[in-house]
Amino acid sequence: MSEQYICIGCGVKIQTENKDEIGYAPKSSLEKEDIVCQRCFRLKHYNEVQDVNLTDDDFLKILNELGKRDALIVKIVDIFDFNGSWLPGLHRFVGNNPILLIGNKVDLLPASVKPNKLIHWMKQESKELGLKPKEVFLVSAAKGYFVKEVTEAIEEYREGKDVYVVGCTNVGKSTFINRILKEVTGEGDVITTSHFPGTTLDMIEIPLSDGKSLVDTPGIINHHQMAHYVDKRDLKIITPKKEIKPKVYQLNEGQTLFFGGLARFDYISGGRRSFVCHFSNELEIHRTKLEKADDLYERHVGEMLTPPRQEQLDTFPPLVKHEFTIKEGKTDVVFSGLGWITVNEPGAKIAAYVPKGVHAMLRKSLI
Ligand code: GDP
């Protein structure tokens, strides 16, 4: 493409190479007078927002932009991967703008997780991470649970201002906005995009009834997300589709569990006890002896211990060991983006292994 084209909807530079990247439009559209990117096209004609992903640099630009606006910020995280889907640094940029924190995918949690406890935990955790949301909500964008309540809260807290929806990729931001749109505009209404003054950050503006806008910002790629290390075809294995069924393992000291080939849990010492595993129902768990675990992994990763796939092994990061002693009862050992193991009694010495770059941590149990 020698000439530079700009989308009349959001101002992004048009490219015709990659459908999943920002600014994509099919080649044929370049012949038209008013060119719109695929994302704006979908919004205009189908009333639907579409994912696009951003690099870290672009993310910083967006954060800077948010700080300059007088707006309500709606931040979405995936409650199944709270820390992995957190957007670090947001609090340093938002200035005095109010924030609502939305934990999406509540439909996946086992029934034993109490929503109020989780909300309380999210508030605590946000505070520690430097963010002070006005309110915290749990929703299921996919099922529509609590979307009405959140829509009302957005209306209340925005006080006539614009609304910016931010979140990293895969938290369900598009699903959420599409739900809100139905709530606000009614199913059949066609909305239009309009040019966003002074920026080409491809945020798209969805007009609200009072002349203000709901702004969809691109999804940010968070490199700590487990999802980046898994083949696209295997995402359905690690991403739960239904309520998680906890699986209880009675382990002796010196036993190991493998979660596919993506994570490993060593029970080092603390006497025979039970461990409650919360992972996607589709992810296979293998039990073995700790002394045999290294060898088993080496021989079987990519086949019995999968994902990852055989053909990914060259690029798949090594598993890194994180050792912990469980000091309090009811502690979760979290494998970011994959799941967690609840340990009921204190005193166990354990090790959690995750691909290099992904977080493993302890937290007070959600149950
Ligand atoms: P985005 O990248 O943040 O815009 O995320 P999407 O809206 O594309 O959703 C990412 C994935 O999460 C998709 O597979 C959705 O089906 C799924 N998803 C979104 N919302 C929910 C939800 O409330 N519950 C469940 N179980 N899955 C969801």
From TrEMBL:
PROSITE patterns recorded? G_CP
InterPro entries for the chain: G_CP_dom (IPR030378), GTP-bd (IPR006073), GTP-bd_ribosome_bgen_YqeH (IPR019988), Mito_lipid_metab_GTPase (IPR050896), NOA1/YqeH-like_C (IPR048422), P-loop_NTPase (IPR027417)
Source domain of life is Bacteria
Residue ranges annotated as coiled coil are none
Residues in CP-type G domain copies: 60-223
Q: What is this protein called?
A: Ribosome biogenesis GTPase YqeH
Look up and give the organism this protein is from.
Anoxybacillus andreesenii
